[in-house]
Design brief:
The chain is mainly alpha-helical. The chain has a domain at 27-81: Non-ribosomal Peptide Synthetase Peptidyl Carrier Protein, Chain A (Orthogonal Bundle), CATH 1.10.1200.10. The protein contains four helices and no strands. The chain has helices at residues 2-13, 35-49, 60-63, 66-80. Helix 1 (2-13) runs antiparallel to helix 2 (35-49). The chain is globular.
Length: 81
Amino acid sequence: MNQPIVSFIEKEFLPASTKLESMEEELLTGGIINSLGLMKLISFIENQYAISIPFEDITLEHFNTIEVITAYVSERLDTSH
C-alpha cells in the first residue's frame, strides 16, 4: 500500500533521483513537506484510495511519516467498508 504514497512524495517533494531514507523519515517536522504540500498529499491519498480525510484528522500524528500515513490510510479503508 505504501508504494504509491512513497512514489508520490519522492516525485513531488524531493530533488530528482533522491529517495526517502526510511519509512520513519519525518516528512512534516523534517521539512520535506510544507502545509501546501500536505494538502497535495491529502488530495492524492483521497483520490488514490477513494477515501475522505476529515479536516480534524490532518495532524502530525497521522501524516508525519510514511509509516503513520500507511497505518492511518489502512484504518480509514477498514472503516469505510
